[in-house]
What does this fold into?
Amino acid sequence: METAGKIGIGLSAFDTAAQITEACTVGRNCAKTTFTSIGEFSGSLLGGRVAKKILAGSVTETVCVAILGAATFEAGGAGALLCTLGVAGGVTYGSDKALSWTLGTTGELIGEKLGFYEVVDND
It folds into this structure.
């Protein structure tokens, strides 16, 4: 699992670099894309850490096992597994997207305030 996480981070970094390279090659808001993409990548990494901290200190697994595990005992406790995966996936996805958007917007604003580019439209 640890190796898969490192591969995922590497692929995400590669995707970010590809987005920046494409924008700078085509000449489409190179500086803005750079600041936004790096902010989104950083937010995605931070979102994963936040989700890990939230889930490590939660009682999600215990509640899922106690309630849905008992209810689906005949099916091998499949309900507990699905509940745990669903909650963990939801928290991870939500924190990833929220922090990715927040830091992407922050990176965009920092680039604008430092004068690397001028905002002419809001798309």
User: Anything to note?
Assistant: The chain has a mean pLDDT of 77.
